[in-house]
Every structure is written in C-alpha cells, then in structure tokens.
Design goal:
There is one protein chain. It contains seven helices and four strands, in the order H-H-H-H-H-H-E-E-E-E-H. By secondary structure, it is α+β, with helices and mostly antiparallel strands.
C-alpha cells in the first residue's frame, strides 16, 4: 500500500457515507505531529509472525513476502538484502550465489544456487527456530515431506525437508530453469522424492 494513511481515509470515507453520514470533500491524509492528545478509536494487532509465515508458505502471497522483506530492513536500519546476508554470515553460512533485489522473488535478477538453498534449509533446521520453520511448510507424503514450492514463468522450485525410509531427514532444493510447464517436471520431481522416502532393498 503506497499511502497507508490515505488508504485508511478512503475506506473510512466509504463506510461513513454508506452509513448515511454526510461528509464534505474528498478523503485526504496529512502527516504531522498532533498538538493535543487525541482519542484512540481502534487498535489492530497483526497475526503472530508464525501464522503469517505459515500462510505465506501456503499461498505464496508476493505482497506478504515483500512486506516482511522490507520490515527486516526497517528493523535492521539498513537495506534488507544486506541485513539478510549479515544474519546468515553471523550464523556461519556464506551464500556466494545469493543475490536479492526484492522480497517476493519476482525479480529476474534474484539468484541463488540449489546447493546454497539446500544449505540454508539445513542451517535453519538446526537453529533456534528450526522446528517452527519446519512446521510452517506444506506437508505431503504422509508427513515425510515438508516443503515450499515456488513458480513463475519458466521457473519452478521446491525446497525443504524429506525423511528417508531409514528415518534420516534430508534438506533439499530443486530448481528448474526454462521449464516448459509444470507437467514436464512434476513426474520427475515426484519420482525423485518418493525414491528417497521408499524403503531400500535388503
């Protein structure tokens, strides 16, 4: 939302007019420090971050992802991409292939290798929020597969964790570039993941 205050004023204007309250002029938004104490009309709290991330993993909302990305920059008081790289460097993870130009992943200039993305999953899983992250992912294959898919024109990605039949958990990342369509890659992806989870012959 480019102008949150004007957005709010616009919708408040609509609600008041719908209720039969006469208003003169069009909604506007001014930014200044109030000179007198105001009256609190309403307080709105967002959902907990864990619920936001779980929802994001479920629906891949680009606006949600971009908002979280920019919030990281605001909290760190620096460019979001710089803040993210600094965080993972501090955690001992160097990501030489990573390039971030936005938080939604829509920018064609965003890059990361499958190897670095899989390493990132591994470090996250071993970290203090590893279980929360794991539980926020989509679940398939009777709970053996926890993953996040992603797609845009000619690109498909899958990353997360899969349990082998022996009980070992593996971090993985599959990235397809120039894929003609989902039907071309889906059978191969399914076969690969199922082969990891399948019991091995004695």
């Amino acid at each position: 939302v480019p102008d949150p205050a004007l957005f709010t004023a616009h919708h408040l204007d609509r609600l008041l007019r719908a209720a039969g309250i006469t208003i003169g002029g069009k909604p506007t938004a001014e930014y200044h420090q109030p000179t007198t104490a105001g009256h609190l009309l309403h307080t709105h709290h967002s959902a907990p971050l864990t619920k936001i991330i779980t929802h994001l993993h479920d629906v891949s909302d680009n606006h949600e992802a971009e908002s979280l990305y920019r919030l990281l920059g605001v909290r760190a008081k620096q460019d979001p991409a710089t803040a993210i790289r600094a965080h993972w460097t501090q955690r001992g993870l160097d990501l030489p292939s990573l390039r971030l130009v936005d938080g939604s992943g829509l920018g064609r200039a965003n890059t990361i290798s499958a190897h670095d993305l899989a390493r990132l999953q591994f470090v996250v899983r071993k970290g203090p929020q590893g279980q929360l992250y794991h539980d926020s992912l989509l679940v398939r294959m009777d709970g053996a597969l926890h993953f996040k898919p992603g797609a845009m024109s000619g690109i498909q990605t899958f990353t997360g964790f899969i349990n082998s039949a022996s009980g070992h958990e593996f971090a993985f990342a599959l990235l397809y570039n120039h894929a003609p369509n989902r039907q071309a890659t889906s059978p191969w992806t399914t076969q690969l993941l199922q082969s990891i989870n399948a019991p091995q012959p004695q």
